[in-house]
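Sequence dictates fold. Next comes a concrete instance:
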Amino acid sequence: MLTIAVLQFSVPVFSASTNPKARYIATTEKAESDYKLARARCDRMADIAKNLCVAQAKAAQTQTESNATAVYKDTPEARFIARIDIADVNFEVKKAMCESRHGNPREECVKDAEATMVAEKQNAAAVKKIGEATSSPNDDRLATNYIAAIKKCDALNGVQKDDCAKSTKKQFGK
């Protein structure tokens, strides 16, 4: 009798985990719940520590929800929006980390955070364009890897940079 009761309760959970919409809803509800718990922990803090804690809690929620939406919709546009949303909340976290600094170091920290956000958004836009040209998620990952490899080449100078770019293009068939 106990086995039958256990099976009755486990079947809906299994079917919910294989249903994309149910999985999406469960993931976003868990993200909201986790955010509320984290936010409650943040409320016991003060000033800069609290601001950073809240930013991190919001970032975790946004990342989970954005990724869930991108997986559920499975389109280049949805993945692009997720990456933009994540870049925005990551910026807020980095900006909150800068609050403990004063004067010029703080301004430099914020500028670095802004530069990172802009780069993440540009990368998202480039991946979106490539993703629209190809509809496969594997192709989207390949495009992301290609862009990351090219960015590594950009950090080099002269002949090394040229050689790196050539070998990367050859590796990715570009």
Summary: Confidence is low (pLDDT under 50) at residues 1-16. The chain is about 85% helix and 0% strand. The radius of gyration is 21 Å.
